[in-house]
Amino acid sequence: MLKYIPATDRHHAAPVSWLSSYFLFSFADYYDPKNIHFGPLRVFNDDSIAPNSGFPQHPHSEMEIVTLVLDGEVTHEDTMGNQTTIPKGEVQRMTAGTGLAHGEMNRTDKPLHIYQLWFLPNQKGLAPSYEQKDLDFLDSKNELVPLVSGQKVLEDVVYMNSNSTIYWANLREDKEIEFKTFPIRNTFIYVKEGSIYVNGTELGPNDQARMTDEHVVQIRARKDAQFILIDLPSSEANY
């Protein structure tokens, strides 16, 4: 079963002048009891941050936090002692665990575009930890590239404490990808740009597909496209 969610259904938030954010799930002042999470995927925010601004230090706990940098670069500092820069094409994961605080700033003169995703962890009480990796995912061609995973069969990815995997794809016009899944798994797709058919349903920029009880996900590009695909457990027992 595929649930299509158009871009216009995203919640737009601009609480300060330097931030434009689209929430795909309930977050901050946006609450919809029917849109809290999809499996362990609890937050998906599509954020644009103006030059020389950003999020000052703030706390988190009991969450796996993943940031994908699509344009610009993030300056990151946290209470674990990490002080890093995350440029375009790199991926960051923080295990908030028992608690940490961090700040995310755009200290450049150019706009910053990121996706930030939060996952419910597969266990509570973990020690906070951090990982960052250059996966150059924005230049991949006609394949699903794994970026972050808790499934240890995958190599050269950022690890997270969730039985889930984040993939990225750049799919040329008329090219196809087949993703094999199981009825006990969920599949989430969010399109950055271009147009794709997902099991016959067309998705354009910033559209979503949330799929359950599928065996195969067939994806064909109607136009050159970039999108994120997330493989998720459907049962809380398997998070």
Automatic annotation (TrEMBL):
Q: Which GO terms describe its molecular function?
A: metal ion binding
Family in the record: Belongs to the pirin family.
Q: Which InterPro entries match?
A: Pirin, Pirin_N_dom, Quercetinase_C, RmlC-like_jellyroll, RmlC_Cupin_sf
Residues annotated as domain Pirin N-terminal: 16-118
Please list the cofactors this protein needs.
Fe cation
Where does the secretion signal sit in this chain?
none
Q: Which UniProt keywords apply?
A: Iron, Metal-binding
The record, for Pfam families, names: Pirin (PF02678), Pirin_C_2 (PF17954)
- The organism is Hymenobacter persicinus
**Cofactor descriptive note:** Binds 1 Fe cation per subunit.
- Residues at which Fe cation binds: 58, 60, 102, 104
Residue ranges constituting the Quercetin 2,3-dioxygenase C-terminal cupin domain according to the UniProt record = 155-232
Q: What is this protein called?
A: Pirin family protein
